[in-house]
């Protein structure tokens, strides 16, 4: 019997490291510290974690906005090049959607000009009016002509976010990177924007990387989830598997504070460590509730948690976890 190999990834990060110089002779901050991540055509991947874990820096590096210190990014099988011409061509195919539509839109520009801006920057010829109208319609602003001459202050927050999305769609990208796409919106319109992103995947075949701190959002929109902590992905897999049976204590803690969670919330002690001083052993061990409770000791892995680093997880999409305790003999999923 023959098996069908999975399709190659559309976007792939391989051994990615991004560092920022320290101040006054301090060690460099390892914002992204060895990441493997694949996104396939038509797939939505959620990248989740606390503020400061490195997820936005990773997203910016995938967009070519930050040059990695090591590793490489490939798109459609070809390595990303960092010349101005190559990056301009790349950004026609990979577009960014930011979390703050008010800050993303020039208050002096009409909706039409805001959406047409990408076409003009990239010198796209053809019927500009038709392209703008089509993008607005895909973003759910219908009839589009009714919005052409409006200004951002005349729109609701949800409408402004749809204009930002239309500005990305007008270049007909293959992938969008959405950084906290509903964080600044009222709860009443968040569901509408998430439904829009899912519809765009169905209608246009778009892939998406959705960067968020909200695991509930990941559950509603993603095919796969990658949980990031201190510059590295610590758990990844199909969204149902990771969010219904999380194996990493950090993922368990993030899930425990959702309104629908069963049991008491896990309160993590302290703040995430400084990325210029990543601890030895598991990078989560200083805040780990499993180590603090003695469960890791009973499983015989406490010393390894404190002293033995874990390998970088493969980006290919299988269910994986970087945790000595989760992998201890006899534990589910071992």
Automatic annotation (TrEMBL):
InterPro entries, per the entry: AAA+_ATPase, ABC_transp_ATP-bind, ABC_transporter-like_ATP-bd, ABC_transporter-like_CS, Oligopep_ABC_C, P-loop_NTPase
User: Keyword set for this entry?
Assistant: ATP-binding, Nucleotide-binding, Transport
Cite the ABC transporter domain residue spans from the record.
11-255
**At the top level of its lineage, which domain of life is listed?**
Bacteria
- Asked whether the keyword Hydrolase is assigned, the reply is no
Single GO molecular function? ATP binding
Record-level GO BP terms = peptide transport; transmembrane transport
Q: What is the similarity comment for this entry?
A: Belongs to the ABC transporter superfamily.
Its name, as the record gives it, is: ABC transporter ATP-binding protein
> Which organism is this protein's natural source?
Streptomyces guryensis
